[in-house]
Design goal:
Layout lengths: L13 H8 L17 E10 L2 E4 L2 E5 L2 E3 L11 H13 L3 E9 L5 E7 L2 E2 H7 L3 E3 L8 H9 L12 H7 L1
Parallel strand pairs: 3-6
Antiparallel strand pairs: 1-2, 1-5, 2-3, 4-8, 5-6, 6-7
Length: 168
Amino acid sequence: MAAVVSVAVILKPDWVDAALTTDLPPLPAPAADAPATGDISGPARIVDGDGLEIGGQRIRLHGVDAFETRQMCGGHACGRASADALRTLVGGRSVDCAEMDRDRYGRIVAVCHAGGQDLGAAQVRRGHAVAYTRYSQRYVLEERAARRDNAGAWAYGFTPPEDWRRAS
């Protein structure tokens, strides 16, 4: 039986070295008084399991879909539990949010932290929300861990929040 061996030779043109060693002009420094666009910080009012308000601005947690306020999961009020869990996570501390997008309702979609903790990650990991994979893969590992550990709503069984909204 004969063996077939393939060899690929990749040639690097001279211009590659020149492009890699050419000094590029420095990027302009931001103005000292320029505000950080998309960053919002302050005391938060919890709206639901994936929504909050800071300084009158409505914010939805990026990559997270929490159970709706009236949603039940296997006889458990998972929607209210989700909002209560977010309220506990924030614990009266200042919340820092980095805007990622705007949703169709005009809300800011942001990654938010309180006390150094990513609120979206914590909500998903504790089973009070699911990873909103239609928009982001950011919290997929947290959802897998929550499912594995039967955390939060995973212990009761549930209709995914997006399907629940569609049916309501």
